[in-house]
Amino acid sequence: MKIRPITFLPVIILLGIGIAFAFGLRNDPSKIESTLINKPMPDFVLERVLDDQPALTPADLLGQVSLVNVFGSWCAACVQEHPMLMRLANHEGVAIYGIDSRDTAEAGAAWLEKYGNPYRKVGLDAQSRLAIDLGVTGAPETFLIDKQGRIRFKVIGPITEQIWKQQLKPMMDLLEAES
Length: 179
Hints:
The protein is of the alpha/beta class. The chain has a single domain, classed as Glutaredoxin (3-Layer(aba) Sandwich). It has 5 helices and 6 strands. The radius of gyration is 21 Å and the shape is elongated. The model has no long low-confidence stretch (mean pLDDT 90).
């Protein structure tokens, strides 16, 4: 009986797919580099979530180093991250702006009423148009914005104490020192 090389083709294909998956699983999705780094925030006008605030626009981000945090009332990881955002806003003086993604204004306002509001302004991105422009893959995601309104860094997932101390705080201090 003669074995033909084509007989091994399915095994070779499966082996190749397995190797590709193995290499893919070694990559940390929170380390994905954004193509928007050092580019200006996309142009947007987001309707308000809270009645006492006007719409959120890129002009709100100019002249200060700030964080733009994408969240949603539906997001479990956002609840986990929220105490850290409250601490950064209330004790560290960090300017944080919120983008309430895939939500309603009522749900976002109720969520902020329940957990507290660390944001200077909150805009509603109900259809996720801005989130798509920013390359957001899920909430929470946070963008570090410089004084000129350029995106300088992106955090995928909740901001932790370690991320704050080792990445965001040093970068914010450097950006603050720039004129």
